[in-house]
From TrEMBL:
<dbReference type="InterPro" id="IPR006564">
    <property type="entry name" value="Znf_PMZ"/>
</dbReference>
<dbReference type="InterPro" id="IPR018289">
    <property type="entry name" value="MULE_transposase_dom"/>
</dbReference>
<dbReference type="InterPro" id="IPR007527">
    <property type="entry name" value="Znf_SWIM"/>
</dbReference>
<keyword id="KW-0479">Metal-binding</keyword>
<dbReference type="Pfam" id="PF03108">
    <property type="entry name" value="DBD_Tnp_Mut"/>
</dbReference>
<keyword id="KW-0863">Zinc-finger</keyword>
<dbReference type="Pfam" id="PF04434">
    <property type="entry name" value="SWIM"/>
</dbReference>
<feature type="domain" description="SWIM-type">
    <location>
        <begin position="454"/>
        <end position="495"/>
    </location>
</feature>
<keyword id="KW-0862">Zinc</keyword>
<protein>
    <recommendedName>
        <fullName>SWIM-type domain-containing protein</fullName>
    </recommendedName>
</protein>
<dbReference type="GO" id="GO:0008270">
    <property type="term" value="F:zinc ion binding"/>
</dbReference>
<dbReference type="InterPro" id="IPR004332">
    <property type="entry name" value="Transposase_MuDR"/>
</dbReference>
<dbReference type="Pfam" id="PF10551">
    <property type="entry name" value="MULE"/>
</dbReference>
Amino acid sequence: MEDDQILVEPEQNLIPSEQTLAIGQEFPDVDTCRRAIKDMAIALHYELRVVKSDRSRFIAKCSKEGCPWRVHIAKCPGVPTFTVRTLQGEHTCEGVRDLHHQQATVGWVARSVEARLRDNPQIKPKEILQDIREQHGVAVSYMQAWRGKERSMAAVNGTLEDGYRLLPAYCEQIGKTNPGSVATYKGIGPGNAFQRLFVSFRASIYGFLNGCRPLLEIDKADLKGKYLGALLCASAVDADDKMFPLAFGVVDSESDDNWRWFVSELRKTLGVNTDKMPVLTILSERKPQVVKAVEDNFPTAFHGFCLRYVSENFRDEFKNPKLLNLFWSAVYTLTAAEFDAKVNEMMQVQDVMPWLQRFPPNMWAVAFFEGIRYGHFSLGITEILYNLSLECHELPIVQTIEHIRHQLTCWFAERLNLALSYNSVLVPSAEKLISEAIADSRCYQVLRANKVEFEIVSSERTNIVDTQARFCSCRRWQIYGIPCAHAAAALLSCGEDPRFYAHDCFSVTKYRETYSQPIYPIPDRSHWNSSSSGLQGVVNKADVMLSPPSIRRPPGRPKMKILKMESLKRPKRIVQCGRCHLLGHSQKKCSLQN
């Protein structure tokens, strides 16, 4: 009957207030019986006292003295079902008159929130207790809501301890379902406590080596779960300037050894997949352990630093908006002469030489950096890592990597469909830059020296372009990989299309190649043992046992660092008046009379 189904599955439907038990009503088992009686008591706002509860019977009565309500439910002989044997009277008491209810236990909260938790794992305890109050008319404490969420999370995803125990078998499945992928882990100590994990899917490795720009960003995000730790990532950039996560790591702490290991695994992953490793540009925060790890494992790579850290240090040192504007102008200058001019302007405001000695320009200025940053001055992967850490910090480690794999799978499918829809030579972001360069090139006079060398003359300056070497004296072509307006003028003058002179990594063909390989799903854990190789003499990873890390979160609510996305971007330029030289308004809006 429908009424019986409502009692049997109380976590999916709120029992209506007119719901009552009936003699002969059946339940599949004693646990379902207990849950149904508890849900009914909460829905009808009566508190019950359990008189007897075991595997063969369940007896409960109203907790109010003098109220005759009582129920006796017993197991049916020969079958697992339970049936209502006796039911005495209606409630004569006034029931519960406040919002607190004895039957609203942590277990009941966990069952009540399970459905919503599946849809929104980020639901907060405050939202849970508010929902329970609105839907059930019951008040639970913050701690009950928090523990209920923890218990429900364990029921949905397994416990955190189960995640470490299943990690070896999961890594084995990654290798079987996605051949060519790398999934390696390490435990330490007598209990084989988890220390670190490195995962890179073959589709990501192939996409980076065959389609992405030779640029890597390395960063980390702290995990705030029970066992703390950090989420590490190395990400490339695809043709259309989107982040392309290449490898992930989970470590028990952000130590020098763990950073060295992660970057070493990254080098080995790329080294065994290509004989012609491209010359890389690697961007990261200016952390000593990261700098040392990159130097040791990628000695030929050009290592640049995130401008967010450098600019924040400059801002805190001088606390002068005009100087900060000049600093950013110096960052974007393309030649040493232009950079020196900006430094001279800064020196007229304040002495910045001591700071420049601590932060040499080759660390942050475009004019002196030898690698190709492709316009990336801050780390784009930071925001992605921050969001992943928020979404995954309460998940077991296996579910964390699965969540990341699902996200990568969605990105691959969406971007491949997008790439297949393009009919242009270059991706849209590069096409826009080329169109702007072509439009700007019309004001230049072109003087051809020979077949490949040109002199581009304007009212401001003269630039030299070599189309064969893909060189312009303004250096924009070499730094950004896309022909500048001077190069576009030279190419158009001899009938060439500037689009064919951009770096290959901006082409639609490379964009399609980046996402051409699929990331295959991992089977349910119930099928893992059946897929074992069964080879004698080979240690099966599934037989290796990992225990949780020895580092645990201290008592109390963890401090959540709120990352403001606007802090990752270049600050807005502060206007300076050319008439009164005050900040905050332009000369046009100046109140000072001529």
